[in-house]
Amino acid sequence: MHQLFRPIAALLLAGATPLAGAAALAQEPAPASSLVAGATVYDVNGEAVGKIAKVTGDRVAVSIDGNGLGVPRQAFVKGAKGPALQTTKAKILSVLRQAEANAAAVGGALKPGAAVRSADGAVVLGKVTSITPQGALLATNEGNITMPRAAFFLSKNGLAVKLSEKQFLAGVRAARAQKKGS
C-alpha cells in the first residue's frame, strides 16, 4: 500500500548530494516563490520527479508516483525548469521502493507479543501489547507507552525503535511525568 509523505529527507541531505556532481553543488537555492503546492519538482538532470503537495515551514511534501517524500526546503536548488533536487529520479524512486519494503517488513513484525529492542538491538525495551493505526502500545518496565509506526525498524536482532536505551527510557519517563502533571 502506498503511503504519502514518508520522511526520507536523509536521501537528499546526506547521500544524494554527491550523486549530483560539482555542477549541482554550485547551483543556487530554489527561490521560496517556486516552492508552492502544485509546482513540478525536477531532478538534477531536469527530469520531472513529482509535484509539491504541501509546504509547511521548512518542510516540503512532494508527491511522487503515489508515494510521498518529506524534503527540507534547503534541499531544493534552482533548476532550469523549476525547483530541483540534487539527485536523480532513479535514486529517489529506489529509496522510495526500499522505504516501502522496509515499512512492509515492519508491519509484518509489529504484532502483539513482539519484543521491541533498542536501536543497536542490544536491549529489549518492551513488548507490543496492541496495535493502533498510528503505532503500537508497548509494555515497558517504566509503564505503557504508545510509539508511532515511524519509530520502528527491523534490525538484525528483530523489531527495534530508532532510539538508544537511554533515549527511550528518558522519553518514557518524561511522557509519564507529563501525564501526571496534566
Describe the structure.
The protein has 182 residues and is an alpha+beta fold. Helices cover 29% and strands 35% of the residues. It contains four helices and 13 strands. It has helices at 10-15, 17-25, 89-109, 165-181; strands at 6-7, 40-42, 48-56, 59-64, 67-72, 76-78, 83-85, 115-117, 124-131, 135-140, 143-148, 152-155, 158-161. It has a five-stranded mixed sheet. Strands 8-9-10-11 form a four-stranded antiparallel sheet, covered by helices on one side. A hairpin with a 4-residue loop joins strand 6 (76-78) and strand 7. Mean pLDDT is 84; it is low at 1-25.
Separation, N- and C-terminal Cα atoms? 38 Å
Average predicted local confidence, pLDDT: 84
Radius of gyration: 19 Å
User: What is the SS-derived class?
Assistant: alpha+beta
Uncertain spans, ≥5 residues at pLDDT below 50?
A: 1-25
DSSP E strands, number: 13
The count of helical stretches stands at 4
Strand percentage lies at: 25-35%
Oligomer: single chain
Biggest beta sheet attributes? 5 strands, mixed
Q: Which word captures the global form? A: elongated
Strand order of the largest sheet: 1-5-4-3-2
H/E series, N to C?
EHHEEEEEEHEEEEEEH
